[in-house]
Amino acid sequence: SDLKNLIHAFMSSRVDYCNGLFTGLPKKTIKQLQLVQNAAARVLMKTKRTDHITPILKSLHWLPVSHRIDFKALLLVYKSLNGTGPNYLSDMFQQYTPARPLRSLERNLLVIPTVRTKHGEAAFSCYAAQLWNQLPDDIKGAPTVASFKYRVETKLFSDAFC
């Protein structure tokens, strides 16, 4: 029990603390972070290195690192759109309003900034807006932060493991 709390605290403090900053990392770096998470899960569950990690992460209810990064980015977008996030993030996102009445007007979409490079696509403003626009409307319309967290985590968990 104490070991589980210690490892969970370590993972959440080290990995979750900077996930908003991890949106632009190369896949190689994210893979290294995933290996750290996998090792922590194996120590916690006392499994061999040769055992498959997916069932272990699923039983611990830990999202893979890439999905955890998406979770943190979406949470920052939700908070900024609902006035509970930092002002500099609120200024970063603009609601999409079409020139004429379209069905997409009611979908709560964000404008995706135009970029010309892969580095520009990895920027938080572009990456987070793309993630937000891919969310289902019922998740975007969550009334509270707690319900948004629950809905997004459930969706990402099912994407990762189902």
Q: Could you tell me how far the N terminus lies from the C terminus, measured between alpha carbons in angstroms?
A: 28 Å
Helix content percent band: 55-70%
Rounded Rg:
17 Å
- The total count of strands amounts to 0
Low confidence ranges:
none
Structure notes:
The chain is elongated, with a radius of gyration of 17 Å. With 162 residues, it is an all-alpha fold. The protein has helices at residues 2-16, 27-45, 54-60, 65-81, 87-90, 118-121, 124-134, 137-140, 145-161. The chain is built from 9 helices and no strands. It starts with a helix and ends with a helix.
What is the topological layout?
Elements: H1 2-16, H2 27-45, H3 54-60, H4 65-81, H5 87-90, H6 118-121, H7 124-134, H8 137-140, H9 145-161
Helix pairs in contact: 1-2, 4-7, 4-9
List keywords for this structure.
single chain, 162 residues, mainly alpha, 9 helices, 60% helix
What would a concise description of this structure say?
With 162 residues, the protein is mostly helical. It has helices at 2-16, 27-45, 54-60, 65-81, 87-90, 118-121, 124-134, 137-140, 145-161. It starts with a helix and ends with a helix.
